[in-house]
Design brief:
It contains 20 helices and 18 strands. It is an alpha/beta fold. It binds NADP nicotinamide-adenine-dinucleotide phosphate.
Amino acid sequence: MIGVPGTADRLFGALRATNISVILISQASSEHSICFAVPARHASRVEQVVRQAFSMELQQGQIQSVDVQGDCSIIAVVGDGMAGLPGVAAKFFGTLGNAGISVRAIAQGSSERNISAVIDKRDVTRALRAAHSGFYLSAKTISLGLIGPGNVGATLLDQIGEQADRLRRDFGLDLRIRAIATSTRMYLAERAIDLSQWRELMKDGLQPLDWAVFARHVKADHLPQAAILDCSASQDVANRYIDWIRSGIHVVTPNKKAHSGSLAAYDELLAECRRYHTHFLYETTVGAALPVIGTLRDLNQTGDEILSIEGILSGTLAYLFNVFDGKQPFSAIVCEAREKGYTEPDPRDDLSGMDFARKLIILGREMGMRLEMKDVRVESLVPPGLDTLTVESFLERLPEFDAAMLARWQAARKDGKVLRYVGRLNRQEGATVRLEALAADHPFAHMNLTDNIVRYESQRYSANPLVVQGPGAGPEVTAAGVFADLLRLASYLGPSR
Ligand SMILES: NC(=O)c1ccc[n+]([C@@H]2O[C@H](COP(=O)([O-])OP(=O)(O)OC[C@H]3O[C@@H](n4cnc5c(N)ncnc54)[C@H](OP(=O)(O)O)[C@@H]3O)[C@@H](O)[C@H]2O)c1
């Protein structure tokens, strides 16, 4: 067809004779093909006519094929205001791209008052919603599934419920929680769960958990964007992220398991996020809502070189050593902290240092270090022989080790120091998590009871390191951090009002 005059004239001449109107025409300047759309009911008749009109060229191979693609729809943005306004096409196609919709053909007249795109019929509602929200004609809708309505998850549901009207009104953002899952059951709502009564709904309307049904429900065909909020601490849930990412579901989570597990799985997950243009946000995995990972990224991305990171990243261990003053036995402080809900139900989860080590791995990997759990030197505070007992037996026998802990405290005290459980990370020495004796005027020696603190030393912040400090745990702040990540996701998915 290239450079052969009259092809279009013959094609449309033949169609004129059939009295079938062509509703869209698109031809690229390469002249390799002409694409046009007719109502589906005329498709086979039109195919016949075109084959007839070009039968000789088809036989001689000058025209390769006449293809009919069914199940298509045309979506068009139309308006006088578009003429001469740069960026309308970019916004239109960007919005469709963000919603994971492929465009099969495009047409725009030189009057610039109409841009039409041919898409798969099954994408049409999603495309329409995406285009409407992209041009602020309706709110930007995100279909959401929440996993783990425990401490953090329940608080997050309440926070989203309280803010939903304001977000819709002021920012044109429609956050729809359409699914909630626990470890065994789930609740699905067609439109959106009424968050003022999600607890009652969860009691009555639960069905057995089925991950495939859950994910399909969240990634609804008619809604342009979908995200899963994983508020569990489950490895099994984390293992499912990759499938969700591949199906275009974004993931937001305070769960550390996915990015502190094997390096191979971590690399694959991030590669798939890039490949499928899907977002994975996890600021709250370290220091809850404190901007620990964001700060590290800002330093990295602006070309600063991070020399070391050190800090106290366990609110529980911070509390234990802030309170331990040599008067009360260490084991009694552990029991008291457990009763106040500061420790995990099994305090060994905190005392083992593994949770802290996971946070260092996340930070190390953000710095580009290829860290695995085996590379982190962890000093466990679970006394030898007590790691396999039941929680009750463990707590009963913990006093046997009070004398050893007191001796460490006294030795530190003799040198004018205090005990703190600290993590350190640098490229030369790798990662360590251990109990250290620090000078009494060290910044880590004077913190609020359960605060976290992170100190970044970099090329720019070398003489005076950058410090992030504040509450590093608690459902309210952690849920607010996940919420902030969710709003960040919304802004990545296109402009808000
Ligand atoms: N609490 C904090 O202050 C804090 C701070 C920073 C980060 N985080 C992180 O936030 C996450 C949640 O912490 P949390 O304190 O809210 O925990 P939580 O109260 O124990 O709640 C965990 C929730 O996850 C669900 N769950 C557990 N295993 C599951 C599975 N295999 N599949 C689906 N759901 C599952 C549980 O459902 P069931 O009831 O059915 O077991 C429960 O609803 C954790 O990753 C934690 O490390 C918490």
